[in-house]
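Q: Is it fine to ask for two folds in a single conversation?
A: Yes, each is treated on its own. Send the first.
Q: Here.
A: Result:
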Amino acid sequence: MPSTPESLARENIDAQLAACGWIVQDRARMNMYAGRGIAVREFPLQTGFADYLLFVDRKAVGVIEAKAEGVTLSGVAEQAGQYSIGLPANIPHVTLPLPFLYESTGVETYFRDERDPQPWSRRVFTFHRPETLADWLETESGAGTGRTFRARLQQYPLLNTIGLWDAQIEAINHRDSAL
C-alpha cells in the first residue's frame, strides 16, 4: 500500500518522539507503566481524536496535532487547543486545559505552553523529552513560583537605563517577543 502524506508525517513524528525518549503506543495496546513518557496515537476525546495524547508519569500533559508535510501549521493551533480541553473525566491529567500543545508535520514542529501569560505557538527543533516536561511541571508548581519562565520574565525590576543606548533599551524591553 503506498504511503500517504499523512502516514509519512506520522512515521516521522513517531521516530522523533522515540528519539526524544517517548514510548509511542496505539490506544488499543496502551500501557501507562511502559515508561515515564507515553505518546498514545489516535486518542478519543470529547472534542475529536487527538493524533497523539502525551502522558508523563501516567498523567495527560499535552497533545500533538499531526498534519501532512507542507500544511501551514499556523492554522492548526486552534485545533490542538480544542483537544487540550476535551479530555474525558476518567483520564488522569495535570490540569485542564492540558498545558503542552504541539502541531507537527514531522518536518516542522510548533510548541505552545498554555500556562504562559500570552501563549503562542513557536517553532521548535523537535519534541521535548518527558523528563523536561515533568521538570517544568514540578519546578513551576513545587518551587512555590507556580509560574512559567515567561511569566517570571514579566516580573523583572525596572531597567536602569543609565549608560545604555536607545537600541539596547528597546532590545531589553522587548525581550519577551524574541522568546
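Q: Second one now.
A: Result:
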Amino acid sequence: MAAGLPLSLLYVWSSMNGHPFGNTLHSVCYFISVYPLGFAYAAGLCLLYLKWKEGSVWKWLAAPGRMALTNYIGQSVIGMFLFYGIGLGWGSTIGLLQTEVIVLAVFLFQMLFSRLWLSGFKFGPLEWIWRMLTYGKRLAIR
C-alpha cells in the first residue's frame, strides 16, 4: 500500500495533466503502481477474513466464487448488452458514476443468483459443462 497508493496518485496526476513526463514514464508509473496496490487490496481482504471468518459477507461472496466461470461469462454478456451497440449502447452516453452503479447492481444480482442456484445445485451451469468436458462423462448436477 505504501508503494502502490502514491504511485497511483502520481499516475492519476499525470493523466489529468496531459502526461507531462511523456507517455513512456506515464505507462511505467501505471505498471509499477497497479500490482503493489492490487496485492495490498488482496492482503487487506485476507486480513479482514482472518479477523471475521464467520461473517455473513464471506458466505455471500463464496457463492459467486464457486460459480466464477458462469459469472465471468455472464458479466461479459450483460456488459455487451448494456454498453455496446449490439444492445442498449450506453457505453458512450453515461458517466463513470452511472457505470459504477450499473456494475455494482450486476454484481449484486450475480451474488443473489449464485446463492439461489447453489441452493439447488452442486455447480454453476457452465462449471457443470466444463467438468463434464474435462472428465468425459455426464455428472450429476444436484
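Q: Anything structural to flag on that second result?
A: Two points. Residues 4-51 form one domain. The mean pLDDT is 86.
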